[in-house]
Write a structure and sequence with these properties.
The complex is a heterodimer. By secondary structure, chain A is α/β, with parallel strands linked by helices. Chain A has a domain of 134 residues: ANL, C-terminal domain (GMP Synthetase, Chain A, domain 3). Helices cover 34% and strands 22% of the residues of chain A. Chain A has 19 helices and 28 strands. In chain A, the strands form 9 sheets. Chain A has a 4-stranded mixed β-sheet with strand order 2-1-10-9, sandwiched between helices. In chain A, strands 4-3-5-6 form a 4-stranded parallel β-sheet, with helices on both faces. In chain A, strands 18-19-21-22 form a 4-stranded antiparallel β-sheet. In chain A, helix 6 links the parallel strand 5 and strand 6. In chain A, helix 2 crosses helix 9 and helix 3 packs across helix 4. The mean pLDDT of chain A is 91. By secondary structure, chain B is mainly alpha-helical. Chain B has a single domain, classed as Non-ribosomal Peptide Synthetase Peptidyl Carrier Protein, Chain A (Orthogonal Bundle). Helices cover 54% and strands 0% of the residues of chain B. In chain B, helix 1 crosses helix 3 and helix 1 packs across helix 5. Chain B starts with 18 loop residues before the first helix and ends with a helix. In chain B, 41% of the residues are buried. The chains are: A alpha/beta, B mainly alpha. At the A-B interface, helix 10, helix 17 and strand 27 of A face helix 2 and helix 3 of B.
Chain lengths: 595, 111
């Protein structure tokens, strides 16, 4: 049986269909306290309120203009997002700002996207205006608008339906480099193509209930969980991410209660649920309806998958429900994942061979064995190639190379950044095939399954959020610069599998100048942690001060962050003579504490 | 830093009798986190220290508030450690929730 989604030119076609066919059915249910108190929005209410707001956006000349969406988790964001789609306004979803650094980031997004208005809720209007003004945004020229202020009885009459397919629907700013923000442009056609891909790869039924908590401004939360049920005439039951972190079992209880067919979460969230279960849970759960748990946004760990299944199979969780997937903002969302028949769920390979680009399948008992989870097959209508990143030659099965993608939901490019768009979205293989998206990720294909093994780019993914080393290095160098010290910095993730993930900074001290004593170093570390946490919301685990010229570099002088990380994880750093000062607890000290 | 063991959980619940009692519990949880996350952090914890200064990211803040809610058997909004960003101000807020007294916002926020 065909679905309206199969032929929709935009997700608005789906909403129109279900607003007529299922007017009084709930499209969204938000748990305001994460547990009991519900706010609901029917399909008719959603269409009506979104169109009224769209009428006002149109009246204000905001068609084809960027509008920033600053909302806490809830229904207001849903209405504002659909209002932008209806009005032909380009939505720019963003995280709420909590300090001056966050407002500075919003300022960069506003400048890059040429934002003409900010949509928010009344409770945040004054704080938003003050924060943006302090950050240097000329708010007099940017309206800060709330639904209740701008919508009136006549608003819907201003709404003019316009068929839009290849125009931008929204811009997804990656967590990307703060000095060089990259806004990924997603058109209406690309958005609906990815919704189709999500539905098909896991065979989600019409009227599916979906449950979740992922941030609505984040691609996985927006496209994967918030919009998918609306594309299918179903209902999205959700809560704030903070309510999930406060008590992870709220999410599982929600899935049970609303008989969710699908949900999505990064690996760390599954770990949190396993931990919560081990701490004791004696309630009732029925997860037998749950067909799909999309697991992505960060590397998927086989141990986590196995432990999660063990914890929840007694409650009816199907052993195949957990479906690792792969994607990014540049592919709108998903590019591989879902049901993959005849594909290994994971492979056990030799870790050392993999470092040299060779996939050597070994037994579990091999001392150098490593599990790599399969992220499913390419989604319907999309192509994935593994390509030598230097020669651009297409590689055979089981050869590690860069993952290149093509298909209808590959995004249109980076907003007003032709150079980066061409470099990333316009790649051609050595034999002239293309254009392909260069993901910057390394992986291989085994029997149609995609296996992601690492990254060419030195992007760090911590708790599902992308961090660019250069941004954090700039923050750290800035702290030293305030004390007139010109330092070189290299940062890397301590270990993505660490209990509490964070980053490590190597700081190369200047050749001349005052030597750094232990007490001053300690003070610097404290200031650095404060700055990194405030600006990037990530823990700076360790700081290591090096002699001048000691940080690993290439012959051309480029910092080798991956080599820095190897030195750290191998423990070689503990005895390295180039190190002057370090916060790191040595292997011997760690063992002493453990015993 | 105050002795965190002064407050012993009774029936898995801790019953503070003042703001200071709440602060002690915050110290207790922070000490555990710092020992695990930043073993080099040896500075004594003080009430006027901010969570940014201690290096608590957003997940750790929510977990701290959750620990306190579990200790005291009360409901706390997960954003509490964003709204009250020092140990002292969070203790004032949590105590107001426990005791049912009105929070002196100016005092809590030090303004």
């Amino acid at each position: 049986m065909s679905l309206p989604l199969d032929s929709a030119g935009s997700i608005l076609a789906c909403l129109e269909h279900y607003a007529a066919a299922r007017a009084n059915e709930n499209a969204y249910v938000f748990l305001t306290d994460g547990e009991i108190h519900e706010q609901a929005l029917t399909y008719n209410e959603l269409r009506s309120r979104a169109q009224a707001m769209a009428g006002e956006l149109t009246q204000r000349g905001l068609q084809d203009q960027a509008v920033l969406l600053l909302f806490p988790a809830g229904l207001d964001f849903v209405i504002a997002f659909f209002a932008c789609l209806y009005a032909g306004t380009i939505a720019v979803p963003a995280n709420l700002a909590r300090n001056s650094h966050h407002y500075a980031r919003l300022k960069q997004i506003i400048q890059d996207s040429n934002t003409q208005a900010v949509l928010t809720i009344p409770a945040l209007k004054a704080a938003t205006e003050k924060g943006l003004t302090t950050a240097g945004v000329d708010v007099a020229h940017i309206g800060i608008l709330c639904e209740v202020d701008i919508v009136n009885a006549a608003s819907r009459a201003h709404f003019q339906p316009v068929a839009r397919t290849h125009q931008p629907a929204f811009i997804q700013y990656t967590s990307g480099s703060t000095g060089n923000p990259k806004g990924v442009i997603v058109t209406h056609a690309q958005l609906v193509a990815n919704e189709r891909a999500i539905q098909r790869c896991s065979n989600l039924p019409e009227f599916a209930n979906v449950g979740g908590w992922l941030p609505q401004f984040h691609d996985m939360g927006l496209i994967g969980t918030m919009l998918q049920p609306a594309a299918l005439g179903g209902c999205y039951y959700f809560m704030s991410p903070l309510h999930f972190i406060q008590s992870p079992m709220r999410w599982i209880k929600l899935l049970s209660r609303c008989k969710a067919v699908a949900t999505a979460a990064p690996n760390f969230a599954l770990d949190m649920c396993v931990k919560a279960m081990r701490n004791g849970f004696d309630g009732d759960l029925d997860l037998s309806s749950l067909n799909t748990i999309f697991c992505g946004a960060e590397p998927v760990n086989q141990n986590t998958v196995s432990q999660f299944n063990s914890c929840f199979e007694p409650y009816g969780l199907h052993p195949d429900a957990l479906k690792p997937c792969y994607g990014m903002a540049e592919t709108t969302l998903i590019i591989s994942g879902g049901i993959a028949t005849g594909v290994a769920k994971y492979l056990t390979v030799n870790r050392e061979a993999l470092k040299t680009g060779v996939v050597s399948v070994v037994t579990e008992q091999d001392p150098e064995s490593q599990h790599i989870v399969c992220c499913g097959a390419p989604v319907d209508g999309h192509v994935i190639k593994i390509v030598n990143p230097e020669t651009f030659a297409v590689l055979d099965e089981n050869a590690v190379g860069e993952i290149w993608c093509a298909g209808p939901s590959i995004a249109a490019g980076y907003w007003k950044n032709e150079r980066a768009t061409l470099d990333t979205f316009g790649a051609k293989t050595a034999c002239g095939q293309g254009p392909f998206l260069r993901t910057g990720d390394l992986g291989f294909i085994n029997r149609d399954g995609i296996f992601v093994t690492g990254r060419i780019k030195e992007l760090m993914i911590i708790r599902g959020k992308n961090h660019y080393p250069h941004d954090i290095e700039t923050t750290i160098a800035g702290v030293f610069a305030e004390k007139s010290m010109d330092v070189q910095v290299a940062v890397f993730a301590n270990d993505e599998a660490a209990k509490v993930p964070g980053i490590v900074a190597y700081v190369e001290l200047p050749r001349r100048g005052t030597a750094l004593d232990a007490e001053t170093f300690k003070q610097f570390v404290s200031t650095l942690r404060q700055a990194v946490n405030a600006v990037h919301d990530v823990q700076l685990k360790d700081v290591v001060a090096f002699k001048f010229g000691s940080i690993p570099r290439t012959s051309s002088g480029k910092t080798q962050r991956l080599a820095c990380a190897r030195l750290y994880t191998s423990g070689g750093i503990d005895t390295d003579e180039r190190v002057l000062l370090s916060t790191r607890r040595t292997t011997t000290e760690t063992e002493a504490v453990a015993s | 830093m105050s002795d965190a063991n002064v407050l012993t959980p009774i029936n898995n619940r801790v019953q503070p009798d003042s703001v200071d009692g709440v602060s002690q519990r915050i110290f207790f949880h922070l000490k555990k986190r710092i020992d695990a996350d930043y073993p080099d952090f040896t500075e004594p914890l003080r009430s006027d220290m901010s969570f940014d200064y201690i290096g608590l990211d957003s997940v750790s803040r929510v977990e701290l508030v959750t620990d306190l809610a579990n200790d005291f058997g009360i409901k706390l909004d997960p954003t509490a450690a964003y709204d009250f960003v020092t140990i002292g101000s969070l203790a004032e807020f949590v105590w107001s929730e426990i005791s049912g007294t009105t929070l002196d916002l100016k005092k809590a926020l030090g303004v």
